Amino acid sequence: MKALLVPLVTVPLTLSAIGPPAHADTGWVWPLDPRPAVVEAFDPPVDDYGAGHRGVDLAGATGDDVRAVAPGTVTFVGSIAGVGVITIDHGDTDSTYQPVDATVSRGDAVDAGEQIGTLLDVGSHCAPDACLHLGRVLADEYADPLELLPSSSAVRLVTPFGPPPEAPATPIGPIDGDGRLAMPVEGPVTSPYGMRLHPILGIWKLHDGTDFGVGCGTPVRSAEDGTVTQTYADSAYGNRVIVDHGDIAGSAVTTSYNHLTSWAVSAGEAVRRGDVVGYVGSTGYSTACHLHFMVEVNGSTVDPETWL
Q1: How many domains, in total, are found in the chain?
Q2: pLDDT tens profile 260-297
């Protein structure tokens, strides 16, 4: 038995009747032509059922031809949760495509660049726009498809918000919030909340917190009284601490402290405003020592500076 992995669903299939593909994994071609922009990059989950992005989203248009990334054998064609999905076995790895209206059937042998279907908008990760979610499964684990796709002159930025702004040459000015939360560290803001070009992924996406430029090892303090709900290592946020502050001014508020070198508290522990919860680091998707501080209000991220 071999597990077919597609986003949020695992479907067991028997492949012996089809036979193994004749080609092993030696590099991929782009599944859309012309070469698409990457709307959202690979961001693997911490565990099998955790949040994450188990592939890459490639910009396209409804009706675009979708092509096999490499020679192989089609092992799955069908609808999962109302979304058209195709899986191809390339020997060392599988590729998955969604949402697609298939023009192939299970058991078909395909060549690299051969059309396997057309792009749909129903089930698009980029709704209301169409995009192809391309997945890669290696030894029953999700892997980054971009590792096998041609990288020379590849476009990896889609921005409906206009060109990205220049990075500030100096730290951003003082915070002018309402003081409902205390500063977690004393240091300059080096990257504010808002849309930006991600320094690691190279894509235009929301920066969901405020970055403070302080040295590794600096104590990080709870912004308000609360209860620690989680302490764990995340592939993107690095070592992080999440604190539930309950009701503040009629809203449910949580804060998180990210890219820590280590945490100083445990899940379930009560903390007071100003208690040390961890120490600044550069873990996860980070280019230097800093604190990435996040505030969620009623389940949605907000600009932390408006609360500090």
Answers
A1: 2
A2: 999 999 999 999 999 999 999 988 777 778 999 999 99
Its domain, for residue 113, covers 2-147
The answer on 7 and 123 residing in a single domain is yes
CB 113 within 8 Å of CB 154:
no
- Determine the distance from the C-alpha atom of residue 264 to the mean position of all C-alpha atoms in its chain, rounded to a whole number: 27
Q: Which helix (H) or strand (E) holds 199?
A: none
Residue 13 φ then ψ, to 5°: -135, 145
Does residue 95 sit in the same domain as residue 24? yes
Look up residue 290 and give its DSSP letter.
B
Query: How far apart are alpha carbons 115 and 307 in whole angstroms?
Result: 52
Whether pTM exceeds 0.85? no
Are the C-beta atoms of residues 99 and 123 closer than 8 Å to each other?
Answer: yes
Rg (CA), the chain: 22
Six token digits for residue 141: 């684990």
At 198-227, the pLDDT tens digits run 665 556 678 899 999 998 899 999 999 999
Q: Are residues 196 and 143 in the same domain?
A: no
pLDDT at residue number 165:
41
Mean pLDDT, the chain, whole residue set: 81
Report yes or no: 161 and 195 within 8 Å, Cβ to Cβ.
yes
User: Coil, strand or helix: which one is 147?
Assistant: helix
> 240 to each of 105, 230, 237, 284, 293, how far by Cα in Å?
45, 8, 7, 10, 10
Give the span between the Cα atoms of 181 and 268, in whole angstroms. 21
Dist CA 165 CA 202 (whole Å): 14
Distance CA 190, CA 292 (A): 10
Q: In this structure, what CATH number is given to the domain that contains residue 198?
A: 2.70.70.10
pLDDT digits (tens, 9 = 90+) for 3-61: 444 443 333 333 333 333 333 345 899 999 998 888 777 876 655 555 567 788 898 99
Is residue 154 domain-resident? Answer: no
